[in-house]
Design brief:
This protein is of the alpha/beta class and 263 residues long. Helix content is 60%, strand content 8%.
Length: 263
């Protein structure tokens, strides 16, 4: 990782460069220096920077302005402000703009090292998560491709979707209508099934299930001899309160109010 120290006082920068044990913080790259916002911008434009240690009060643009400008083009850079100005509005604005920490100076180098180790750990964790997400998406895409190839001439996505939709309609009272359970029935990946279902039907699997259950509930409500608790069970809701709240969310009325309006 590379670090950039931005401060208009040379003695402060040189003191940090020599006083901080950078390798102990997990930083093995270059430690660059800039004495104002303009110099810092040039370095950031030409050199990969991971962490910026920045003073707030400087000639020209201050540290807050520099943070605001850099975050627009380099949002991934981590920031730590080092300043002797204990103004709440400074800290508030810095954190709002995405600053990772705010240290009041003079501060012992041990304190700066402690903060840097925390920032480095957060950066590593963030990058690891992004990489896992990237490789995870690639893995899913590859699996989808394999699934589509394996399906081959046996069944096209549209046929699979129609089969699943019909199964749902015929089994609305079943408690086993989760995406995972439906996918397992036909030996498919759940994410892939949900994706092709939404592509073919224009609606997600879960939304389709809820819609069909509510349609069935409205038809059953036309019969005054069937209790609402029985209707809830008939359309796959073992939790009566959840059925009522879901129904009201869709129709704006409770099942009882909806029935009264019908009759």
């Amino acid at each position: 990782m590379n670090v950039l120290i931005v401060d208009d006082e040379m003695i402060a920068i040189q003191g940090m460069k020599k006083g901080v044990d950078w390798k102990n913080c997990g930083i093995y790259g270059e430690v660059h220096e800039a004495y104002n916002a303009a110099e810092a911008s040039k370095i950031i434009d030409s050199t990969p920077i991971d962490i910026i240690l920045c003073d707030i009060e400087m000639p020209g643009d201050n540290g807050i302005e520099l943070l605001r400008q850099v975050k627009e083009t380099n949002p991934e850079i981590s920031w730590v402000f080092l300043t002797c100005h204990a103004k709440f509005e400074y800290a508030q604005e810095a954190l709002r703009l995405g600053c990772q920490d705010y240290i009041l100076t003079p501060a012992p180098y041990e304190k700066i090292e402690e903060t840097l180790r925390k920032v480095v750990d957060e950066l590593i964790a963030s990058r690891y998560e992004k990489n896992m997400q990237k490789y995870g998406e690639q893995w899913v895409q590859e699996k989808e491709k394999q699934i589509e190839e394996a399906q081959g001439e046996r069944k096209k996505p549209a046929e699979i979707v129609e089969e699943v939709a019909q199964y749902i309609i015929n089994n609305l009272s079943s408690s086993e209508l989760s995406i995972k359970q439906l996918a397992n029935r036909i030996y498919l990946n759940g994410d892939y099934l949900n994706r092709i279902f939404k592509r073919e039907k224009g609606i997600s699997l879960n939304s389709f299930i809820i819609r069909e259950r509510m349609n069935m509930a409205t038809n059953l409500l036309k019969n005054p001899n069937i209790s609402i608790s029985s209707i809830a069970a008939e359309v796959g809701y073992s939790n009566y309160s959840y059925f009522v709240s879901t129904f009201k969310k869709i129709y704006g009325l409770t099942p009882t109010q909806y029935r009264e309006k019908l009759l």
